[in-house]
Specification:
Blueprint: E1 9-13, H1 18-29, E2 33-38, H2 45-50, E3 53-56, H3 62-75, E4 80-83, H4 98-125, E5 130-135, H5 148-168, E6 173-180, H6 186-198, H7 205-213, H8 222-232, E7 244-247
Parallel strand pairs: 1-2, 1-4, 2-3, 4-5, 5-6, 6-7
Helix pairs in contact: 1-8, 3-4, 4-5
The structure holds nicotinamide-adenine-dinucleotide.
């Protein structure tokens, strides 16, 4: 399918690495203008080479995010939001702390929701249609004994995707989510280190193991996920809303 996003402005949160960076590249290849919002004070070498607009912000800082979304919208009306920034943490249930809960929910849920709200408000004010794509996870599909807060934060992403899809449908704005399985990104280095700690494994063992357990036989790569993000942002996806798509090599079934 030849997807053309020329003339479209896509905002990608957490676009400096991993899945977000692959989607930035996918949107650029499809002809979109791309703005990236991430934590570092300035764009890294990858983003600089790609020539995207860069804004430094923590998605959980709602006031700062509203100001950044104002700036993005002033540069060019926003057509697409790839709402991707998130963090991971884990601990045995009886040791799962309030501090970890607050960090995960502030970024993965509060940051995700109020970014969606700020961008949707711009689209509604302009009476324009739009595309919003949230990053859920296989973790949001079921619980895990060691990963309760993160799983709950991603279940919330799936729920907000459904509510926002219904609320924004009258405005012609679609809202969908992507639910990756295990994808080889910088996030998985910290995931592996935490499993090493709590399951008493050597570093790297869990990452190898999860790859072999995927029905399609390997961990995902960011480029396995990016094409769906491009499709969902396009006009071809205009009649799809409120859905969460697994891109996981069959993992959530296994
Ligand atoms: N890698 C996986 O196996 C996997 C699986 C399922 C879902 N996901 C989800 O996919 C998305 C991308 O994950 P990834 O693996 O590419 O992670 P990653 O850690 O490689 O990239 C995340 C990006 O988000 C940025 N970020 C983190 N906190 C932020 C904040 N408060 N404000 C702004 N930016 C922030 C980071 O700086 C980083 O550039 C996340 O929502 C993650 O939960 C990942």
């Amino acid at each position: 399918m030849n997807i053309d996003l020329s003339g479209q402005h896509a905002v990608v949160t957490g676009g400096a690495s991993g899945l977000g960076l692959a989607v930035v590249e996918g949107y650029l290849r499809a002809g979109a203008k791309v703005s990236v919002i991430d934590l570092a004070p300035s764009a890294n070498a990858d983003l600089t080479a790609l020539g995207v607009e860069y804004y430094s912000a923590d998605v959980s800082d709602t006031a700062r995010m509203r100001a950044v979304i104002d700036q993005c919208e002033a540069a060019a009306p926003i057509d697409i939001l790839y709402n991707n920034a998130a963090i991971f943490d884990m601990a045995p249930l009886l040791e799962s702390s309030e501090e970890s809960f607050d960090r995960l929910f502030n970024i993965n849920v509060r940051g995700m929701f109020f970014t969606l709200q700020a961008v949707a408000q711009k689209m509604v004010d302009r009476n324009a249609s739009g595309r919003i794509i949230n990053l859920a996870s296989q973790a949001g599909r079921r619980g895990e004994a060691l990963v309760s807060h993160y799983c709950a934060s991603k279940a919330a992403v799936i729920s907000y995707t459904q509510s926002a899809a219904l609320a924004l449908a009258p405005h012609g704005i679609t809202v969908n989510a992507i639910s990756p399985g295990v994808v080889d990104t910088p996030m998985w280095d910290s995931v592996d280190a935490l499993f090493a700690k709590y399951e008493n494994r050597p570093l790297g063992e869990k990452k190898t193991l999860v790859g072999t357990e995927v029905p399609l036989g390997r961990m995902g790569k960011p480029d396995d996920v990016a094409p769906l993000a491009v499709f969902l942002a396009s006009d071809q996806a205009r009649y799809i809303t409120g859905q969460t798509y697994n891109v996981d090599g069959g993992n959530v079934l296994s």
